[in-house]
Amino acid sequence: MTATRVLVLNSGSSSLKYQLLDMRERARLATGLVERIGERTSRLKHTPLTGGGESRERGGPIADHDAALKAVAAELAQDGLGLDSPELAAIGHRVVHGGKRFTEPTVVDDAVLAEIERLIPVAPLHNPANLTGIRTARSLRPDLPQVAVFDTAFHTTMPESAARYAIDVETADRHRVRRYGFHGTSHAYVSRASAELLGKAPEEVNVIVLHLGNGASASAVRGGRCVDTSMGLTPLEGLVMGTRSGDIDPAVIFHLARVAEMSIAEIDDLLNKKSGLVGLCGDNDMREIRRRIDEGDERAQLAFDIYIHRLKKYIGAYYAVLGRVDAVVFTAGVGENAAPVREAAVAGLEQLGLAVDPELNAARGGGARLISPAGARVAVAVVPTDEELEIATQTYALVGGGGD
User: What is the DSSP track for 263-306?
Assistant: First the structure.
């Protein structure tokens, strides 16, 4: 029997998201989330997706990631999908930062773990949690391939002219200061799915991908390879986001330190957690912002206008980088669901061949779809992202589908 299942784990500092997929049919078998790990109010929600099973929830303390994964294994076993199944080919792990070294999915060994750990200074919030998930999974199934799929990997094809900051080269190299980009798993999946939507091979199309969620990023993809992306050394650079400022004059940091006497930690907290939409208007939920705009709220309108202005600047910039654009594609929570954002983002760009059909744009659901008018020079599309499927696909391709 060939092993065809892949368990995908996304480990946060106090959470564990998971999906079990059968790659023979590219079908989900189960999905779930463990949250508030390490607290007395931990919660596990598990949803089997075969046999008509219903979601199950359990509360109570879950001490650490080891206990969380064991609880997940128990839930999967209850559905006949246990981690000891011979049908399980591998476990795929989302790892946020792979630096310059990891340009593709990688089977984890001690040396790989050590390198991910060395990258913690450039991903202090994410890599430690990702490492915990990998180590826990290895302890439970040491015989099974563990595969790291890196958020930064898709962006390692950027040329040096896009990846380097204009600072002293020796200082930059010594401290690994460069533009890495993030959301790469999503950008990889969506750019490839966009080509499929257009009926072409990825190598034939140039695409601008707009991943718009609470975190947001743009990428310029030429022939299936990323040539530029909006996030940089960290996920703070680029677009206006839910709580992150995006692009800002670096001297703002020096100014706040001198004039407001704010510490580095306070400025870090301000730019990452108290800026963006929430800093501008007090809300980071686009649905709430649109509701407030409809009621005449000027702060919400200004926040929306700043968000769109930055987004439009990146569309124009990446159009210039690519030279020819076949599609502009919206994805993630806001990109997939907020029709007013899509409409506003391309409004006034008709000379670039960009426009949306109001009726197509307003329609909800329906998977990957075009929302531009028939015969448009540049397609505008909505493509739901599927990072878990992308991680599973890359993991399964690497391990060769297991053994017989």
Answer: -HHHHHHHHHHS-HHHHHHS---HHHHHHHHHTT-HHHHHHHHH
Query: pTM for the full model?
Result: 0.91
CA nearest to 211, candidates 243, 239, 233, 236: 239
State yes or no: is 268 an active-site residue.
no
Mean pLDDT of the region 113-124: 88
Question: Given this model, what pLDDT does residue 50 score?
Answer: 80
* Residue tagged active-site, from 151, 283, 326, 386: 151
pLDDT at residue 404 above 50?
no
Phi-psi sector, 381: left (phi>0), alpha (psi -120 to 50), beta:
beta
| pLDDT over 60 (residue 402) | no
In this structure, what are the phi and psi dihedrals at residue 329, rounded to the nearest 5 degrees? -125, 130
Phi/psi at 210 (5° precision): -115, 100
What per-residue string of b and e applies to 79-117 under the rule 16 or more CB within 10 Å gives b? Answer: bebebeeeebbbbbbbbbbbbeebeebbebeeebbeebe
Q: Which amino acid is at 188?
A: A
Phi–psi pair at 56, nearest 5 degrees: -125, 145
The pair of three-digit structure tokens given for residue 133, joined into one six-digit string: 């998930």
The single-letter code of the amino acid at 276 is G
Determine the Cα–Cα distance for residues 33 and 334; give it in Å rounded to an integer. Answer: 22
